[in-house]
Request: fold
Amino acid sequence: MSGSANSMALSNPMQHLRFSAKSLARNRRRTLIALATIIGGLVAQILASGFINWVLYAMREATILSQLGHVQITQPNYFKAGVANPYGHLLPQNSAGLDAAKRVDGVVTITPRLAFSGLASHDDKTVSFVGDGVAPETESLVSVYLNVATGSGLAPDDTNGAVLGKGLAEALGVGIGDAVVLLATTADGRTNAVEVEVRGTFTSVAKEYDDNAMRIPIKLARELVQVEGATTWVALFEDTARSEALMGELAGIFRPEGFELTHWRTLADYYVRTEALFKSQISVVKLMISVIIVLTISNTLFMTVLERTREIGTLLAVGYRRRDIMSMFLLEGLVLGVAGGVLGVTLGAALAEAISYVGIPMPPAPGTTEGYLGRIRLDWATVGGAFAIGTASVLAATVLPAWRASKMVIVDALRHAS
Reply:
């Protein structure tokens, strides 16, 4: 009768929770050490994941808002064959599809670019460059992260200005207001030249780009290479998260005209490889934290089982079933995991906010020219993932000690010395 009563009592969830909480409170020092391990591991995971999230977010937005936009519209095979023959893959100056695409909800702007290359000369220095003819009034929206290092950008009514990458300006030895002669090959193979005035210099996320790039008004670029139209139309959206959906909507507009759409990720090879590397690294960090939690909690619970051997034997003797004993220890692990998880993610989120408020001074990343202040970027996936990993690790660590407790021989357990 007593065994049945005990089993019924133990099946009561609230009774179960109270019993587990009292068991954990018996040895506060050991419980606090276990909690500290869980909390420390989750805080480390949240801060590391949040920092990587911010780095990738900042790199993504800088890549989109300095060079690529969200989607580029071109003639078919432009990014393969157009490198050698850009003027054989020109888009028209006007298009019914272009006008319709600009009215799509979520599209900020679609701006034309004309790619060209040539030689830039100043005094006795001549340097090769790659250039973009841009529409200043709309390009400014797409190039938010193109930092003006000196001078200014191109004004909407500029007719002969140029902004140079910082490295290119240094190679030419030019400053604001200096005249530079641009020499390029026209679409029909002739040589043409124009003179531009340096309005400013810029830096982007890629030093290699800054060492070679120049931007001039698209009207002047067309005059230089003797063409009409553009090599690409660059689309900017309100939200990067919607870029694939909006690309699909634009595809329905442009493909009937025979144009090709390319998503920014296809063009951002450096970003994609960096993202894969960082995600692999953070996965290793999560694995290491999980292993530390499992080993620590397992050791704690094995010590608990050893100290409570006679108690377990008594419970078995008075009618508790072996599965009740296992459930009891598993619930203790669950309580420990949930408590540690809640405290860990709360402390981690608070530290993330504090660190983001102050900022983390960082040196220039490989391939870039400017340092930056790092931040911690959290989302529900990061916080929820940390909580899940912490709780799952504790439960995994509890299984073996709980199984060992449930398999004790009653007589041996009752004879165990205190």
User: Anything to note?
Assistant: Residues 76-258 form one domain. Confidence is low (pLDDT under 50) at residues 1-10.
